[in-house]
Amino acid sequence: MARSHPTLPRRLIGVVVLLITALLLLTGETYPQTALSPASDVAQVSQDLFMLTVWLGLAVGLVVETMLVYTIIRYRRRLGDGRPKQVHGNTRLEIIWTVIPTILLAVIAVPTVQGIFATAATASANALHIKATGHQWWFEFRYTDLNITTANEIHVPAGRTVSFQLASADVMHSFWIPRMIGKRDMIPNHVNNIWFKTDRVGVYPGECAEFCGISHAHMSMKLFVDSPAAFAAWVKAQQVAAVAPTTALAQRGAGVFVSSGCIACHTLMGTIGQGMIGPNLSHVGGRSTIGAALFANTPANMAVWIHNSSAVKPGSLMPPQAVSGADLTALIAYLESRR
Ligand code: CUA
Questions:
Q1: What is the average pLDDT value for the chain, to the nearest integer?
Q2: Do 128 and 209 meet the contact criterion of CB atoms below 8 Å apart?
Q3: Which atom of ligand 1 lies at the shortest distance from residue 209's CA?
């Protein structure tokens, strides 16, 4: 039976589509989660290595394919040709195609080893230290020198090295902010270190990159690179408890927070809540997202989350809360006022 093969025009279209997609992937503004648009010193090292191998590979491919096509055309069988000359091995050719790859691999190996040593070195002395802990399914960030604990959203200053100590509270996770640094595992009872420095103010998405259970796909984070002044202001605000609730609604919500069981799992500065199981909520109102960067931090989303988080994030370990009506509205008003 005859097999149908794609026709040449269809193949060409496929190749063109592939090339355009690849080019689009190179632009980080279009795809903020691409690893091909580095925004930090460490990501640049990886990118340089990657591009070196891409260009060398392209050059090799071009030379080999050109020779192949030339040979096929130049030495094609013609009418009246007899049996071609039979050869067995060619020492000179064998040496050439052994030596050339050896040189190419050496060219790649030198910057690779340099890159490994450069990025595995200890972070600079003035680095900002953040202990990042993976949980099913969210990230906890402790700024060990600043006495700040937050979740899923990291603020760092532009122009200063940030050093992460990665660990896990349960299973293996992997820390990945594609435009800043490659993946690094977060392992229980083991600390992995990474660091990077970026000068580019902006917001950068990150992901857990190691399958860690049913909501692995919903374990995201956001990196906010602030100007040094904006970062200093953020630090100052995080280090103190948010001002006492001013509206009657939020005041009622503060009571609901303490009486309804939230404090068993969550810490909130200025309350008796010192729970360590769930994210620290001291400044939850100031975060742009909830549920590990899954939903925008809006009162409506917060209501859904508190009511039954596992309905919108499979496996979420926060149990459904029996808070409703005016109590729920008040609780949300209180949480949103914690900035
Ligand atoms: Cu944590 Cu995947």
A1: 92
A2: no
A3: 2
pLDDT of residue 60: 94
Given a cut of 70, the residues of the chain with pLDDT beneath it are 1-6, 24-30
Q: Look up residue 135 and give its two tokens.
A: 């949980």
Within 13 Å and on the Cβ side, how many CA atoms surround 252? 12
- pLDDT attached to residue 25: 66
- Record the pTM: 0.86
- The predicted structure's pLDDT at residue 1: 47
Q: Is 166's C-beta closer than 6 angstroms to any atom of ligand 1?
A: no
What whole-number distance in Å separates Cα of residue 53 and Cα of residue 308? Answer: 49
Which pLDDT score is estimated for 28? 52
Please, where are the H alpha helices in 187-298?
228-239, 248-259
Q: Does any ligand 1 atom lie closer than 6 A to the CB of residue 208? A: yes
CB of 173 shorter than 6 A to ligand 1: yes
Q: Sheet containing 220-226: which strands, arranged edge to edge?
A: 153-157, 220-226, 202-208, 173-177, 181-186
Inter-residue contact 283 to 151 (CB < 8 Å): no
Q: Please provide the DSSP assignment of 31-61 as one string.
A: -TT-TTS--SHHHHHHHHHHHHHHHHHHHHH
Read off the tokens for 62.
């071009």
d(CA 108, CA 86): 37
